[in-house]
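Is zinc ion placement plausible here? Inputs below.
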Amino acid sequence: MIHLSLLYEMAYRYSGTAWDGQKWVAAKPIVALGTQVSSVPSRPTGADGTVASRAHDQNSPRSDHTPKPSTGTGTVRAIDVTVTNSQGTTITEAIRASRDKRLKYLIYKTRMFASYSNSKGPAWQWRPYTGGGHLAHFHVSTLSAHDSNGSAWDIGFEGGNGLLDFDIGAVGAPSVKGSAALALQLMLLSAGEVLPQFGADGSAGDETRAALKSYQSKRGISNEPHIVAGKTYAALYTG
Ligand SMILES: [Zn+2]
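Reply from A.M.:
I modeled the complex. Tokens:
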């Protein structure tokens, strides 16, 4: 499927009238996610959207951005979220780790994961996506069975900007817990580092410190004892 521009606006719309006159509302999981990402600091918004435009419908008539059913008031079960690289990595990995039952699938940067397995891969694992686009935004589709569930998503930003302020030299210090810690661990693993005892458990302690030191030394990154917004994060997010 190709994702062309939606009805891009200054802020997300969650109900209204589509280009063809059809009334629509957004499913509550979409409202919840849109509301949460709207408070992420310094997030770009240029590709934000919920309901499909005419061009989008003509190119992708079965999209979850299109209100369904096509008579009466339809429901929109998709949202596009514009992100920087670091925001995109943190939020999509946090959603992937959360195994949120409302998710149908998520697309970001030529990859996707779904809440179900199929011939292209197991559930919740990144698989290639060949539909193009989605470089500056990610797409989320949700399942109709959970239309009325508006609880908060785990997007990794509940503690602030989503970047973990993690003192790499503080061996023995209490672990830093949460989805930002989990996203960091997942990025380290995907970069080839190891977490042999605890794995990606969302609790970053000495084992994660050791993996970070290894990661930094391989890339010649020094003088960065705190990785928040630094060269280490930049390398992880783009690597
Ligand atoms: Zn989309």
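Short version: Residues 1-5 have pLDDT under 50 and may be disordered.
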